[in-house]
């Protein structure tokens, strides 16, 4: 899959190296064991058709200064309302917008060790635009540690008229001075697969995923650094969940 914008995406069938494995979640229990996923009573694997926006999509976000940012490692197919309802049901909070007020508050709450469930996240870019949505789960009494994920909505839709939400999920483990910008920033945990798996598992446990598949070798390079200079490692896979809210 070459890098491009969604408007230039080609055929939905991926090359052999990127064939997909579909898992019918309704008929199997999904559990996480460490950084990888395992399944009990797993149904037979089957080849599926990928969302058209996946054919040539970016693998990494970029910072406002054009540096390579966090890797893309999770995606959902569904409407904006479905995405928000899924993450809310899974116990994730929508992040506040970055403003002077919210920036002062998160800085103060880190110092005072006060919780801030909707703390803002910094801006990263995909498809040349900032994230369309961001969610987080606080850890402890301070926003210096948290699970968080940013999402960007594709302009291309599938046969059901639904977009793809590409996401970058990472875990903020502490606050420090950035080695690249000199500003105050969060330092991420190097194990980004663990955070990817948490997002998908939480979404599955909310009961709204009707399907799930991996894209193997989505990241040919298994190690790297984000825009803040933090190292990360990955198994190279992208997790894609299919949302269906039953009304």
Mean pLDDT over all positions: 74
Give a short account of the largest sheet: 9 strands, mixed
Class derived from helix and strand content: alpha+beta
Task: Provide the gyration radius in Å.
Answer: 18 Å
Molecular shape = globular
- Uncertain segments are 1-46, 102-106, 180-184
Portion of residues in beta strands equals 35-45%
The helix count comes to 3
Approximate helicity band: 10-25%
SSE succession: EEEEEEHEHEEEEEEHEEEE
- The domain count comes to 1
Number of strands: 17
Intertermini distance: 36 Å
Brief descriptors of the model:
two-stranded antiparallel ribbon; nine-stranded mixed β-sheet; alpha+beta; globular; 3 helices; 247 residues; disordered N terminus; 36% strand
How would you describe the overall organization of this protein?
A hairpin with a 5-residue loop joins strand 11 and strand 12. Helix content is 15%, strand content 36%. Strands 1, 6, 7, 10, 11, 12, 13, 14 and 17 form a 9-stranded mixed beta sheet that branches. Strands 2-3 form a two-stranded antiparallel ribbon. The protein has one domain (12-243). It contains 3 helices and 17 strands. The longest helix is centred in the C-terminal third of the chain and has 14 residues, at 192-205. It has 247 residues and is an alpha+beta fold.
